[in-house]
Design goal:
This protein is α+β, with helices and mostly antiparallel strands and 231 residues long. It contains six helices and ten strands, in the order ααααβββαβββββββα. The chain has helices at residues 8-15, 42-50, 71-81, 85-97, 131-136, 215-221, and strands at 102-107, 114-119, 122-128, 139-144, 148-152, 157-160, 169-172, 180-181, 189-192, 204-210. Strands 8-9-4-3-10 form a five-stranded mixed β-sheet. Strands 1-2-5 form a three-stranded antiparallel β-sheet, with no helix packed on it. Strands 6-7 form a two-stranded antiparallel ribbon. The longest helix is centred in the middle third of the chain and has 13 residues, at 85-97.
Length: 231
């Protein structure tokens, strides 16, 4: 007998599909198609090693000064004037925000209470004849709270209130002098006693009478007093 011949179908079955006997590729994205972990394209890895990492810009804190070409001039100014950066910034802001104003200083009789206030050199002073202002001769000019700074004596102040309790008549606990207070007409500002200011910064004083005996009517009719404590 001669040798038995295998049919083409049997041969194909033994060799597998018509791909030369290779195993079929798995679906896209299967572990068989993925590169081994930790191994990437050699050329890409080489390029990544050659390129230096991008430098991140240093974050500037909010409100930081970008002085640019003025940096050296600014540092020399601080050194020459012997002031801190905060003090120099305050000086700069005061110069621009308080143009046309002067810095007055003052306080009580014994010196326990001291303050500074930015206001015109030409003061507009109110002379009120309400029950309390008449008795203590409370002549005062009005400024926004932002222009007033208590330098010392916060723990040495007492306050007297009456009636509506809106006005805060503050005075020194030691000597009893009221050098400033919070007016009922302007609770968002301060009334400053011009006679409690240090000498040398007041050029003139204009006095205006206020009928405090009819306070509500007088304040309602006044054209500007409410605006004097606004920014």
């Amino acid at each position: 007998m001669g040798k038995a011949r295998r049919s083409p179908a049997a041969a194909a079955t033994r060799k597998g599909p018509q791909s030369g006997g290779k195993k079929p590729a798995g679906p896209a994205g299967s572990p068989r198609d993925r590169p081994p972990k930790g191994k990437g394209a050699p050329r890409q890895r080489a390029r990544d090693a050659e390129e230096p990492p991008e430098e991140e810009e240093e974050a500037q804190p909010a409100g930081a000064l970008a002085l640019g070409a003025q940096q050296e001039r600014w540092l020399q100014f601080l050194k020459r004037q012997r002031v801190s950066g905060e003090e120099a910034a305050k000086l700069l802001l005061d110069t621009f925000e308080y143009q046309g104003l002067v810095k007055h200083t003052g306080g009580c009789h014994c010196g326990s209470v001291r303050f500074e206030v930015w206001a015109s050199a030409d003061l507009h002073v109110f002379d009120c004849n309400c029950s309390i202002c008449l008795k203590k001769q409370n002549r005062h000019f009005i400024v926004p709270a932002s222009r007033f700074k208590l330098l010392k004596g916060a723990d040495n102040l007492a306050a007297y209130t009456f009636n509506t309790h809106c006005a805060k008549h503050t005075f020194c606990k030691t000597c009893g002098v009221q050098s400033f207070y919070t007016p009922r007409s302007n609770p968002d500002g301060y009334g400053i006693a011009p006679h409690c200011l240090d000498e040398g910064t007041v050029r003139s004083v204009t006095l205006e009478s206020i009928n405090g005996k009819e306070w509500e009517k007088a304040i309602k009719a006044h054209p500007t007093i409410k605006s004097l404590s606004k920014q």
